Structures are given as structure tokens and as C-alpha cells.
Amino acid sequence: PVVVKELTKVYRPDDPGLTVRALDGVSLRAERGEAIAIIGSSGCGKSTLLHILGCLDRPTSGTYRLEGRDVAGLDEDERARVRNQHIGFVFQSFNLLPRMTARENVALPLLYAGTSNPGELAERALARVGLADRAHHRPNELSGGQKQRVAIARALVTRPSILLADEPTGALDSRTSGEVLELLTHLHEEGTTLFVVTHDLEVARRLPRSVRMSDGRVLHDGPSDAV
Amino acid sequence: PVVVKELTKVYRPDDPGLTVRALDGVSLRAERGEAIAIIGSSGCGKSTLLHILGCLDRPTSGTYRLEGRDVAGLDEDERARVRNQHIGFVFQSFNLLPRMTARENVALPLLYAGTSNPGELAERALARVGLADRAHHRPNELSGGQKQRVAIARALVTRPSILLADEPTGALDSRTSGEVLELLTHLHEEGTTLFVVTHDLEVARRLPRSVRMSDGRVLHDGPSDAV
Ligand SMILES: Nc1ncnc2c1ncn2[C@@H]1O[C@H](COP(=O)(O)OP(=O)(O)OP(=O)(O)O)[C@@H](O)[C@H]1O
Ligand SMILES: Nc1ncnc2c1ncn2[C@@H]1O[C@H](COP(=O)(O)OP(=O)(O)OP(=O)(O)O)[C@@H](O)[C@H]1O
Ligand SMILES: [Mg+2]
Ligand SMILES: [Mg+2]
């Protein structure tokens, strides 16, 4: 399970006029294999929470136990290892490496993990998001929605046990959006734990549970059909 | 009016296996003060068309006359002047300058135009998108939707006669999205010509006319209520 308790994230704590409480006491528990939407207004703390769950950032206070292990206290290298072995992350602004092709970007996590056939697995992941014919394009030769799909392919190529996706359909038209949701649903059926930040309530309603945030806190946590 | 005829944009024309016809013969005419949504699947050419309309890019072939003037044939400096004097552009990936604050980013077009009171006008523009309290934050200290709103504020601070917005609500929740649409509608009522690329059909339906694209061409051009 994923268990966070009383997480806070405070920027510029020493500067009262500039202090931002991006997370102001967030607690939640997810069992393995759950699929959860995180929703809420622009600036309410969704990406901040997702980065902490993804071991990309540390909270100011509070605890985070991943499958029973305290991960908030790990050092940089240990967190990198947890990320590479267990976590797939789709960034809100994609974060593709500009000098590498789509195929090279997607293969990168496999190279870190020492997996064989990285190129072939990368091409299959690209095919699953409809971009087989863009494998050798660089990010500046791709449309916004194509970059988003490359970021998605990269996040799932290592078959992570936890997939964290920050607005994965934000740049996609409704049909392509539907295809990506099919893909995520399929992964979930195979046992992947899913956290999907989205401001699209149609996306949220396709996941069993929704956590609504506001001003760094959880307002509501329950079945998505109430959303 | 904005008049484009038979625009094409072809990448890698000399490499048959890699040739991409991003625009494959696009024609349209917009009268001054019209508001038009551009919709279509990921990769169909919307951003490419918008960049040509915004004088940020040149077509491979075809013509573009803006208020009777042939702009496709202008050199780099002349196009920069047209942009600064007449056009506001909201980029799909925001394109904020990372080392400047929100306020400095928004003030930049005013500095180029030699306008007095750039700082004050920038702050008012930020207030209109709900970000008065983020004026001194840099882009990496802002959420995705906050960056998008700074990009919007920057595009409208010079009161351009033509506003080109590439997915301006893509990173926004429904309430903030609604506020941005109100703002755009207001500008339109004041006479601004609007081109809004969007994959959100709710946004498209709020504009009188929609142009649907597919594979670099216009599939359909007419009233949005048919969309
Ligand atoms: N420099 C380039 N070299 C080759 N192909 C390119 C280049 N730039 C863009 N393309 C291709 O041109 C096509 C149109 O791109 P464009 O960005 O206009 O799409 P779009 O409709 O805005 O898509 P989205 O909805 O995903 O943002 C895409 O298929 C893209 O891969
Ligand atoms: N380095 C920083 N310094 C100061 N404030 C920050 C910093 N990084 C983020 N913030 C603030 O933290 C708050 C939460 O940001 P976060 O990115 O989590 O929002 P979000 O819910 O993902 O928003 P969006 O829907 O717009 O993507 C925002 O108000 C933002 O301005
Ligand atoms: Mg975010
Ligand atoms: Mg685009």
C-alpha cells in the first residue's frame, strides 16, 4: 500500500509575505492495485503531491510509507532506485530530453534498469500510443499531444507497479484521450496501482475513487460517481 | 481580414521515408473581429497553422494576406514588427522565460513596444487571470495552470487586434477554464479577432465558428453548434 500522513510542503517558510503552503496536511491510503483520480483547482497542490508520491520531491513534514518502507527519509540515490524499480511518472510538461529521439527517450528507463532489448520494447510502447511512425523524431519535431504520448510510453515501458500520471490527457483530443484511458485501464486490470491527476471530470469518473484537493488539503475522498 | 490560400508545410521533403505534410492545402478567410475555434486530432496540423497565422513560421507554399498585406513573404524583422504591433500568441507549451518572474514575462511585449507603465499594465493583466499574488514567482515556482495563465496574460497585455491561443485551457480545471473563456469572450466583444486551437469541444461551442482539421487539411468549416 501507499500511505501518506499529514504531508506538508512549504515554500519560502522564512519569508512571511512569500510563504506558500503548497500542501497543508494531506493524508491518504491506497491499497495495491487501486486506481485513484486526484482533482482540484489550478494551484491546489496536485502536482506537488504527485511528485512526493513519486519520490521526486520530499515533504517539509509528514510521513510516506511505500509498501511498508519509509521512503520520505531516503537519500537521493535510494529514491532514484525506488523510482526506477517501481514507479512510472508522466510529467505535466512531459520533460522529454530534447536531443534524443522519441525511441531513445522511451528506452532510457530500460537502459537504467539494465533490461535487454530496450529498443524493441521502446518501439512497442510507442506503437501502443499510436506513434510507431514518429520513433525517430525529436521532441521539437512532434506536436503537443505527440510529446504527451511519448511521455506516457516512457512511463509504462518498464511495467511499473505504480504509475503516476500528471494530466495525461491534457493535450489530447477526445478520441486520442479515450485510447490513452483504455491503455491506463488495461494496466490497472493487470494490477498496476494508478494515481491520475486530472482536471477532466470525464477521466476522473472512469476511475473508481477520486480525491478532491483544495488549497493544499484534501476536501473529499471517495467514489468517483459522486464527483 | 485574415486570408490564407492553399497553405502547405512540408518537413523533410527530400527524404521520402520521413516526409511529413503537416499542412496539405489549407484555405480560410476570417473577417476582422471573428472568433474561430480550430479543432482536430492530435498531430493534425493545428499548431502549425496557428504559428503561420501568427507570423512565427512560414509556409512551404501558399499565400497569407493579413489586412490586405502579403505577410508570408516578409523577412524576419518585418514579421517581428507585425507580431509585436498586432498579434498576441498563447503557446501550447507557454514558452515563458525561466529566469524572469511572472510580472517580467508579462511586461516583455510592452517593453518591445515602448509602452509606458509596463510594470503596472503587467500587474493588471496578471490580476485579470487571478495571479496578482504570483507576480514575483518564476515559472519553476508556478503550477502548470498558473504558467498557462501567465502566458495568456502576456498575450493580451498589448491589447492585440488578433489573439491566437493554442489550447489556452489545456492545463486548467473547469472553473478556471470558465474564467479564461469569459476573458476571451470579453476581448472578442471589444473587437479582437480570435483564433483558439482547442481539443475541448465545450470551448469550441462557445465560439461562433469552428474549423475542423484532419491530416493537414480542413475537413469542415462552419457554425460551432454543428460540432
Ligand atoms: N520539425 C518537424 N519535423 C517533422 N515533423 C514535424 C515537425 N514539426 C511538426 N511535425 C509534425 O507535423 C504534424 C502537425 O503538428 P502540429 O503541432 O501542428 O499538430 P497539432 O494539431 O497541434 O497536434 P496536437 O493536438 O497534438 O498539439 C505532426 O504530425 C508532427 O509530428
Ligand atoms: N518553488 C516554489 N515556490 C513557491 N511556490 C511554489 C513553488 N512550486 C510550486 N509553488 C506553488 O505551490 C502551489 C501548488 O502547486 P502545484 O503545482 O502542486 O499545483 P497543481 O494543483 O498541480 O496546479 P495545476 O492544476 O495548475 O497544475 C501553487 O500555488 C504554486 O504557485
Ligand atoms: Mg499541476
Ligand atoms: Mg498542437
Topology:
2 copies of one chain form a homodimer.
Chain A: E1 2-11, E2 20-30, E3 35-40, H1 46-53, E4 61-66, E5 69-70, H2 76-86, E6 87-90, H3 102-113, H4 118-128, H5 144-156, E7 162-166, H6 174-189, E8 193-197, H7 201-205, E9 209-214, E10 217-223
Parallel strand pairs in A: 3-8, 3-9, 6-7, 7-8
Antiparallel strand pairs in A: 1-2, 1-4, 4-5, 9-10
Helix pairs in contact in A: 3-4, 3-5, 4-5
Bound molecules: adenosine-5'-triphosphate (2 copies) and magnesium ion (2 copies).
What keywords describe this structure?
alpha/beta, globular, binds magnesium ion, 7 helices, 10 strands, 227 residues, homodimer
Number of helices of chain A: 7
User: What's the total count of β strands of chain A?
Assistant: 10
- Percent of residues in beta strands of chain A: 25-35%
Question: Termini of chain A, distance in Å?
Answer: 24 Å
The greatest inter-chain interface is formed by:
A-B, 31 and 30 residues
Helix content of chain A: 25-40%
Please provide the ordered H/E string of secondary-structure elements of chain A.
EEEHEEHEHHHEHEHEE
Structural class of chain A: alpha/beta
Description:
Two copies of one chain form a homodimer. Chain A is 33% helix and 27% strand. The first copy, chain A, has 227 residues and is α/β, with parallel strands linked by helices. Chain A has a six-stranded mixed beta sheet with strand order 6-7-8-3-9-10. In chain A, strands 2-1-4-5 form a four-stranded antiparallel beta sheet, covered by helices on one side. In chain A, helix 3 (102-113) packs across helix 4, helix 3 (102-113) packs parallel to helix 5 (144-156) and helix 4 packs across helix 5. Chain A is globular and about 50 Å long. Chain A starts with a strand and ends with a strand. The model of chain A has no long low-confidence stretch (mean pLDDT 95). Chain A binds chain B through residues 11, 18, 39-43, 46-47, 92-93, 136, 141, 143-146, 148-149, 166-167, 170-177, 199, 201, and chain B through 11, 18, 39-43, 47, 92-93, 136, 141, 143-146, 148-149, 166-167, 170-177, 199, 201. Bound molecules: adenosine-5'-triphosphate (ATP) (2 copies) and magnesium ion (MG) (2 copies).
